[in-house]
Amino acid sequence: MRLRFALWFLASLLPAFAASPAPVQPAAGAPAAELSTFDAAVLGVIEGVTEFLPISSTGHLIVATRFLGLESEVPLKDQTGQPLWHKPPSPKYPEGVPLTLKLAADTYNVVLQFGAIAAVALLYWTQLWSMVRGLFGLDPAGRRLLIHVLIAFLPAAVIGFLAHDWIDKHLFSVGAVIVAQIAGAGLMFYAEAWRRRRMATAAAPAAETPLTAKTAWQIGLLQCVAMWPGTSRSMMTIVGGYFAGLDPRRAAEFSFLLGFVTLSAASCYKALKSGSAVIQVFGWSHALLGGAVAAVTAALCVRFLVHWLTRHGLAIFAWYRLALAAVLGVVFYL
User: Fold this and answer.
1) What is the C-alpha to C-alpha distance for residues 47 and 193, in angstroms, rounded to an integer?
2) Alpha-carbon gap, residue 41 to 37, rounded angstroms
3) Using 50, 70 and 90 to split pLDDT, how confident is the model at 13?
4) 167 CB neighbour count, 10 Å cutoff
5) Strand partners, 98
6) pLDDT of 142 higher than 70
7) Which terminus, N or C, of the chain has the lesser number of Cβ atoms within 10 Å?
């Protein structure tokens, strides 16, 4: 049942890859640029492993894209020598926006999230189905959960829509990732210490803290900080859950459900806006391969994260972020 549900959900999202409000000029036959099977699989693994772990999938994919040599901004041409357009010349774009390898790779990294979305659909289909039933008044608990998820999603939806282009232009760099990794590690150390002090000073085991509209809104505001690449949406929402009084398991699971909605919206928006660039440049097979690899690895990492947080907390991920920032600083700036 779970597998059929996940496969149906993933299949229902795939047509978004081919849609675009401003169609690009079709290539003559083969893909316009090379993305090897190895590269597609590597990017899929990185997306799956890092999407729900609190270490930033976007930051890792920015670095991986650079290592794999997918950052060229040279305008691409089809097999007849004609330019390929992301946005053809128009009154709004008199010179047009040419299609480049970097633009296609950046979009590819976003639409890989469809694989992570499928993983959550597979593992948490009962909660998602409860939310659907709640939408129609058939499940009160599902309705409350749906309301809280939508409240938490709203800040990111508004700010992400307004600031999307500015973020893409100014923050997708290795330097921005290093800064965010260090700042995120500091926040995680503080949040973990705060949670442990709270547990140690409690006179008796704390009762389960209910999630309210107010705390959902606060978690949603923290999620907005993760628009800075390298911060980690998962990290910000789990930390927000800590400060709301949720235990690590509940904080992580609310993060997954919120991520399902947030990633679905972001991936669909990016696919509708630029998804045809991915297909035109890299071809269908690599898009499907990367998504499938991301789905499998994300499912494994979701299970691992819940297990680990319950027993050990966030500290190991904070140390990893500091180590990664140090390595990136040496490699790219020394």
Assistant:
1) 29
2) 6
3) very low
4) 16
5) 85
6) yes
7) C
**Closest-CA residue to 277 (of 18, 47, 10):** 18
Element (H, E) at 25: none
Q: Model pTM?
A: 0.84
- Per DSSP, 29 falls in state S
Distances (CA, A) of 162 to 113, 165, 267, 303: 21, 8, 16, 34
Q: Which domain holds residue 163?
A: 2-333
Contact by Cβ (8 Å): 47, 290 = yes
Buried b (16+ CB within 10 A) or exposed e, 78-111: beeeeebbbbeeeeeeeeebbbbbbbbbbbbbbb
Place of tokens 């859950």: 241
For residue 310, how many other CB atoms are within 10 A of its CB? Answer: 12
Contacting residues for 247 by C-beta, under 8 A, at least 6 apart:
208, 310
Domain count of the chain? 1
44, 293 Cβ separation under 8 angstroms: yes
**Length of the chain measured in residues:** 334
The strand pair at 85-87 and 97-98 is best described as antiparallel
Longest Cα–Cα distance of the chain, Å, equals 75
Q: Phi, psi at residue 87, to the nearest 5°?
A: -135, 110
Question: If pLDDT is split at 50, 70 and 90, which confidence band does 23 have?
Answer: very low
Residue 22: closest CA among 195, 281, 275, 210? 275
Are 104 and 278 in contact by the 8 Å Cβ rule? The answer is: yes
